[in-house]
């Protein structure tokens, strides 16, 4: 099962361009907070806990994926800001991520203090664009043990009209084995490499190797990557795109030691796609109820036989009525 880690920031934060944002966030971040990974200060970070996209390259230009966000929260008592997962803006006020990135699981998160930071501002030394989270919605069938239906929606307090959302894959669509996709996230260019301040991308081919995971369900999950190119710790919630497009097919969900093909929630699965569309308000109107069935036509009355009925005719007549 994929472990959740944050996407650590180690640059000073400048909020000079955050005028008009939530006053709590602005005043709190001005204190030059200590960045943490689940409570661990950056100075004590273990390399195994660092966010990585294995075999990735810096996104060029940096704003290539403007809808890409990092999930972040504040802890006023500890003077800390934690960043732990990725996500994607799918409408002007909804972000799509993984259910196991639920901020309610983090003791580091103060209630009501979760927000998203838009790329490329996450690791660039400035946080000039963020949005507070109003509501967290988990897929009703999400299983925290098997990671089935690992899908979460974050409804934002504000509407981000100046950011073009990512496009979601069509319902019931699928990608053939070997199709090249692109995973996006922050971190290292390899397991033993140093952290990168850049947003990274890596091309991953659709695979069937995830059937080795006992809980893998191809109806609601998809598989991509290999030992050289993969997602890793902290990339959870980020998008899997059809290469060369901004069409998102998967949500980074789970993997094994960052060296084997990884699992993604399948957005096109009807049970996932329909839930997303319903929650963001794009569900089709319900079908009208079917008309009541027409009453059956009356049975024709039999014509009585002429003359006195025989015993056999009498028996048939009685059986009809």
TrEMBL record:
- One GO molecular function term? serine-type endopeptidase activity
Q: Which domain of life is it from?
A: Eukaryota
| PROSITE patterns named among the record's database cross-references | TRYPSIN_DOM, TRYPSIN_HIS, TRYPSIN_SER
Biological processes annotated in GO:
proteolysis
One Pfam family this sequence matches: Trypsin
| Disordered: annotated span | 279-321
The protein's name: Peptidase S1 domain-containing protein
Species for this entry: Picocystis salinarum
